[in-house]
């Protein structure tokens, strides 16, 4: 366990070195949030209520989503693992007396922890300064929102880990990454809140793991009845179930990959 | 003596897919075939072979990241693939072209991490780090981010990271690749010292025959997936006898020298190269009698030529 804490610490220090990238990310999140919010405000000016969402709810979801984008990689940018599988550097990862998935998870949690403080909090503050947002009133819902963030990070990590792992079988995961870059934002509720989709489509998208990254955390902040099970607890359980299932799949495929698949590169 | 590395009838086949998708054909390729050897504790063994001969494939089977298709292998008494993690705690591995160090962090951070990774007691770790820092002269760049290190410095850092848990066996894949002469010498001297003082068994692949001549009492040559030679350096000369060369500097350019017991293989102005196949003293006397000679040197074949002959002969 101690080794993963050290890896977490190393990743935290590593990402704290990328100051320009952090500032650029913060700027992008804030600007995209403004654009996204203005579009939705125009939509809601025409129809004040859509599937139980008000304009304030929609704009809140926009800034929850933008704040999540730092720690939760919805777009599915590849983990370093993807390139390491392609180049064969993964040999080094398999040589460590540590579980590769736990190793990369500890790294991603370090990255996420840094991003929460230096991307999520400032981005959300920009939203608060520019728009009226719906904030949870009870401390318990704030705690639930924090837990939802952690679970969203776990789901985002496992998805990206699985995308990268695909490289063991298909040689190069870049195609998977490109596909994930479209699927992730659309199915998670980042591009548009899922409530704006037709009911049948939204129903399917809500059941998929991507919704655990944006839509479910946003509805936990908003305390919506559209959450799985209709409650905040139901939403957290949904996220936790996907995180656990994907982690288990990741562990299984890691063992398979390590056993059967030849490591590429000389 | 009990062997620390043992390979018996080791083989690895790959399936490669060829051609465009609809008519893609699968072909079995043997990267390594029927390779057997034993390495005793404390040996330094060079593992040579041209590119694609099966060196890296063999190494990967030894360290447990590739499952053999045939034969068996044991390292430090363990079956590598099955006991990969346990084996990792007992061996050190350095790939010259890959790094285990954290690119953006000071070298010190990566070295500190190995303590938890290999569960080394704090005091042991501190003592070994101090030793390695001194011997590998890491001091000046311990606080430097790895990405800013020169290749030679990074290589020394990687060696330290692989040795902080005091492994019994060190496996090196091209440890001096791309390094300048000074860095190469530093690494070679360090490895010799490690072997002499700690008795660490070292198995290294290299294309640098200087590594072999300085470090290895024993060499194994693999070619086309098969072990072509396994023995001492001197034996390598015997198995692929290479003629000595007489370099003759004439006073003036002349036609190729014709003399019994030698064959002129190259002429460049006044300098001629003669491949000896007879008594050198008699050839030298004859050449000196026939021509006005400014200088003569006798060259021993170097290991490069010897290995080249082994590769070319198959």
Automatic annotation (TrEMBL), chain A:
Signal peptide interval: none
Regions crossing the membrane: 20-44, 112-135, 141-163, 175-196, 236-255
Membrane as UniProt keyword: yes
Keyword terms, alphabetized: Membrane, Transmembrane, Transmembrane helix
Domain of life assignment: Bacteria
Transmembrane recorded as keyword: yes
Name of this chain's protein: ABC-2 family transporter protein
Phylogenetic classification of the source organism: Bacteria, Bacillati, Actinomycetota, Actinomycetes, Streptosporangiales
């Amino acid at each position: 366990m101690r080794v993963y804490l050290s890896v977490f610490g190393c990743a935290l220090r590593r990402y704290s070195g990328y100051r320009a990238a952090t500032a650029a990310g913060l700027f992008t999140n804030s600007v995209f949030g403004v654009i996204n919010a203005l579009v939705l405000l125009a939509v809601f000016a025409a129809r004040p209520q859509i599937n139980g969402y008000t304009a304030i709810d929609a704009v809140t979801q926009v800034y929850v989503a933008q704040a999540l984008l730092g720690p939760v990689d919805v777009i599915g940018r590849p983990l370093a693992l993807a390139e390491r599988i392609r180049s064969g550097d993964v040999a080094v990862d398999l040589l460590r007396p540590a579980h590769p998935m736990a190793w990369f998870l500890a790294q991603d949690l370090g990255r996420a922890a840094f991003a929460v403080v230096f991307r999520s909090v400032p981005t959300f503050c920009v939203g608060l300064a520019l728009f009226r947002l719906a904030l949870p009133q009870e401390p318990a819902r704030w705690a639930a929102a924090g837990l939802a963030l952690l679970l969203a990070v776990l789901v985002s990590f496992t998805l990206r880990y699985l995308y990268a792992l695909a490289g063991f079988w298909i040689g190069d995961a870049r195609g998977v990454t490109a596909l994930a870059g479209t699927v992730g934002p659309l199915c998670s509720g980042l591009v548009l809140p899922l409530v704006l989709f037709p009911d049948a489509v939204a129903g399917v998208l809500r059941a998929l793991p991507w919704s655990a990254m944006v839509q479910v955390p946003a509805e936990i902040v908003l305390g919506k009845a559209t959450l799985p099970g209709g409650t905040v607890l139901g939403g957290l359980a949904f996220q936790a179930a996907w995180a656990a299932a994907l982690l288990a799949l990741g562990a299984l495929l890691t063992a398979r990959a390590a056993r059967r698949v030849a490591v590429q590169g000389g | 003596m009990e062997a620390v590395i043992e390979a018996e009838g080791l083989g690895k086949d790959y399936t490669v897919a060829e051609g465009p998708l609809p008519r893609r054909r699968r072909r079995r390729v043997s990267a390594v075939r029927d390779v057997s050897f034993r390495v005793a504790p404390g040996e330094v063994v060079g593992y040579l072979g041209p590119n694609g001969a099966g060196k890296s494939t063999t190494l990967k089977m030894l360290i447990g990241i590739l499952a053999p298709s045939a034969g068996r292998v044991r390292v430090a008494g363990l079956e590598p693939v099955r006991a990969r993690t346990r084996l990792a705690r007992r061996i050190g591995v350095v790939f010259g072209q890959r790094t285990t160090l954290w690119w953006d962090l000071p070298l010190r951070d990566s070295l500190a991490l190995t303590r938890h990774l290999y569960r080394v007691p704090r005091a042991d770790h501190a003592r070994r780090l101090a030793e390695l820092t001194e011997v590998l002269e890491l001091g000046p760049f311990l606080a430097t981010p790895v990405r800013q290190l020169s290749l030679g410095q990074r290589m020394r850092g990687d060696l330290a990271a692989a040795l902080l848990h005091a492994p019994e066996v060190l496996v090196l894949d091209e440890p001096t690749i791309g390094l300048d002469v000074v860095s190469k010498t530093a690494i070679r001297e360090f490895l010799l010292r490690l072997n002499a003082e700690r008795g660490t068994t070292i198995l290294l692949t290299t294309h640098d025959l200087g590594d072999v001549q300085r470090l290895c009492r024993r060499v194994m040559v693999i070619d086309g997936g098969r072990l072509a030679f396994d023995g001492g350096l001197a034996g390598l000369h015997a198995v692929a006898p290479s003629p000595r060369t007489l370099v003759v500097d004439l006073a003036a350019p002349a036609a190729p020298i014709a003399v019994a017991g030698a064959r002129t293989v190259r002429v460049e102005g006044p300098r001629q190269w003669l491949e000896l196949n007879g008594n050198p003293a008699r050839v030298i006397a004859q050449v000196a009698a026939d021509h006005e000679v400014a200088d003569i040197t006798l060259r021993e074949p170097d290991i490069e030529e010897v290995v080249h002959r082994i590769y070319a002969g198959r």
